[in-house]
Every structure is written in structure tokens, then in C-alpha cells.
Specification:
This protein has 374 residues and is α/β, with parallel strands linked by helices. The protein is built from 13 helices and 14 strands. The longest helix is centred in the N-terminal third of the chain and has 21 residues. It is globular and about 60 Å long.
Length: 374
């Protein structure tokens, strides 16, 4: 009996750093273990591998340019290439991550191939894009939803923003997943590497987010400073093609107890910081189920999250939420003054995320869709 064949298109590959790339790394091998032939499209790399834990890897035949604008154009053809290749190779299902492929998602269906698209949040609302880019992203998202047989949302609240009533027959909600991490020991060598000497275990606030305006890093810094907390604020995250925003952040943090340490791409090092923080601040306000929030929950953190419908759906009653009416500075003060009152949130957050968002449960949900007539 032929293995059901699913191709996953739209990520940079299985070994790269990023939300889609992490998704493939967790999702692909689990699906392969269940008897599927899983193939992933990847950008060209020096150290090529043919398979990763049962997942087959195909490579784009051209090097993607380093220039940000030119690369974005190439990524359109990158997705088209793998959609055509998957169709030619006889895929049963093509799962497209993101909306770059837009209306082209309907092409494989002419050959009896099921197409699924994960729209990846509300890209057209991100402040890092120009007004013209926002319009184009909105159009591309609509075209992707028209062309796809199945549209995957990772948070049910996204239905309010993507014509959920119009496309309700093809929309399914399947969240991102998470696994429990090993617990690295508190390591002062790692602290020294990131110039965090003097930072104590359970003695700092932590944010993990790309340094871009729609992640509201500037607001976190401003509110943290208003709280007059004596605990350092560590911000983990690399820049996202916006030099003026980085300059703004550096000006805000100059002479303060805020540490901008850049990206931390070693998971052992990142997990050490996440699992030993006094409290985790999650400022993301646009999107669906954010992976960094799930990872903070599984680390057993007291979480202070932006009060938006996406974060509330994920955390429910396991986090503290801040808003204009109850600003972050006030919530920070409350936690520092009454910490014992909120300790129980740590275990509640971990229990909830492992119960609702475990990768095995997420793969169960996908397999239901893959084997159904929908």
C-alpha cells in the first residue's frame, strides 16, 4: 500500500531558526512515524541532508539572495517551484505555510492534489510594513484562501479577521504545538557570554521577541522603567530589518537596567534563561498562537501578557494580562509586591499548555483533516 504523501512548502527548511521551521522540525517526524511520506522544501545549504528523522528534504536549485527586498521576490518563486515539484511527484497533499503562493494554491487541485494553507497570522496589520505592503499582504491572504481547499488557522480568534463566515466551510483551527524542555542548570558561563554578569537566578524579567515595532518592545521598556523595578529586564531577540527602531530601543535603554542581548539561537542557553526568570512578559499583540508564549508556559513562568484575544485564548486564566486600563507597569509592581499570590500561575500555565497544545495532540488534529474528505 502506497504511503500517503504530504509536501510542506513555505519554510526555509527543517534545520533553520524560525516559527515555520520549528513547526516542520516537530511536526514532520511525528507525521512520518504515523506512516506518511513527508517531504519538506528547503533553501540551498552547504551541509545538505537527504532526510531528517524520516522526513525527506528537497532543495531549491538557486541560492536565495541576501538583500531583503530581492529575497522577498525570490521567495514567491521558491514556493511556486516546490508546489510544481510536489504536484509533478504525485503528492497527495501540499501544505503551504504562509500566503506567498496566493492563488497558485489552486493549481495542484486541478490534478487531484489536496491543498492546505496556514495563513500565519495577520501579516497585513504589522506596523513594520508600508501601507502598500499591507494592502498587498491582505490581497495575497484572500487569494490564498480562495485557492486552497483547506485553510488552517492556529487560533480561533483569527476568524474575526479573515472573512471567517465567507470561508467557514474550508477553515479549520489547529494550533501550534509545544514539547516539555529539559531543564538546563543555571550557568554563569552562559551569562558571561551575553554580558549578563550579576544577573541572579529568579531575579530578572524576560522578553523573547524579534525587535520590531508590532511586538511592542518599546512599550515594554517604557512601562518597565515606570515600574521602577530593581530587577533587570532581559530582552532576547534579533533585529527585523528596521535600523531606526533599533536606534530608538538603544536610546530608551541607555543607562538603564534593560539588557538587549540580541538573538539566542542555542536552545539550551535560551531555555536556561526562560526557566529561571522571575517573570515572563509577552508583548505580542498581532497574530494567533505565538510559539514563544507556549514555550514560556511550558517553562512554568509567571506570564504577563498583552490583553488581546489571541493571548487570552491561549492562556485563559493562567496568566496576568495588561492593557491601557491596567498598564504593564502596574502589573509588574503587583507581582513584585504580592509574588506569593501568583506563584500558582506557574504550574497552571504549564499544565494547560501540555494538556491543550502538546505536539502529539496537534498531530492528531492534522491527521483527522488529512484522512477526512474535507
Amino acid at each position: 500500500m502506497k504511503e500517503p504523501s504530504i509536501w510542506i512548502v513555505g519554510a526555509r527548511g527543517i534545520g533553520n531558526y524560525g516559527g515555520f521551521e520549528t513547526f516542520i522540525k516537530e511536526f514532520g517526524p511525528r507525521l512520518a512515524d504515523r506512516g506518511y511520506r513527508v517531504t519538506v522544501g528547503s533553501e540551498d545549504v552547504v551541509d545538505r541532508i537527504e532526510t531528517y528523522q524520516g522526513v525527506h528534504v528537497e532543495y531549491f536549485p538557486f541560492k536565495l539572495p541576501k538583500n531583503y527586498s530581492v529575497r522577498k521576490l525570490f521567495e514567491v518563486f521558491y514556493d511556486y517551484y516546490f508546489i510544481l515539484l510536489a504536484t509533478y511527484r504525485g503528492a497527495d497533499v501540499i501544505y503551504i505555510l504562509g500566503c506567498t503562493a496566493n492563488l497558485f494554491t489552486g493549481f495542484p487541485r486541478l490534478f487531484g492534489v489536496k491543498t492546505m494553507t496556514n495563513i500565519a497570522g495577520l501579516e497585513w496589520l504589522r506596523s513594520k510594513f508600508s501601507p502598500l505592503e499591507k494592502i498587498m499582504l491582505k490581497i495575497l491572504t484572500k487569494l490564498s484562501m480562495i485557492g486552497s481547499e483547506i485553510v488552517v488557522l492556529d487560533n480561533s480568534q483569527l476568524r474575526l479577521f479573515v472573512d471567517g463566515d465567507k470561508f467557514k466551510k474550508k477553515i479549520v483551527t489547529i494550533a501550534y504545538g509545544v514539547s516539555e524542555f529539559p531543564y538546563p542548570e543555571w550557568n554563569r558561563t552562559i551569562l558571561k557570554k551575553y554580558q549578563l554578569q550579576g544577573v541572579e537566578k529568579d531575579g530578572y524579567w524576560l522578553v523573547v521577541a524579534r525587535l520590531q515595532p508590532d511586538n511592542n518592545i518599546h512599550e515594554v521598556i517604557e512601562e518597565y522603567l515606570l515600574s521602577v523595578s530593581e530587577k533587570p529586564l532581559i530582552i532576547v531577540g534579533g533585529p527585523a530589518c528596521n535600523d531606526s527602531y533599533i536606534r530608538k530601543l538603544k536610546k530608551l535603554t541607555d543607562g538603564t537596567n534593560v539588557r538587549l542581548i540580541g538573538g539566542v539561537y542555542d536552545l539550551n542557553e535560551l531555555n536556561m534563561l526562560r526557566q529561571n526568570t522571575y517573570g515572563y512578559i509577552h508583548p505580542h499583540s498581532i497574530g494567533g498562537t505565538n510559539p514563544s508564549l507556549l514555550e514560556a508556559m511550558v517553562c512554568g513562568n509567571i506570564i504577563l501578557a498583552d490583553s488581546n484575544p489571541f493571548n487570552r485564548e491561549v492562556c485563559q486564566d493562567t496568566a496576568l494580562f495588561y492593557s491601557n486600563e491596567d498598564p504593564l507597569s502596574s502589573v509588574i509592581k503587583r507581582v513584585e509586591n504580592e509574588r506569593e499570590k501568583f506563584i500558582e500561575l506557574k504550574e497552571r500555565a504549564k499544565t494547560r499548555v501540555l494538556d491543550v497544545y502538546s505536539w502529539n495532540k496537534i498531530v492528531d488534529n492534522y491527521e483527522t483533516i488529512l484522512t477526512s474528505g474535507k
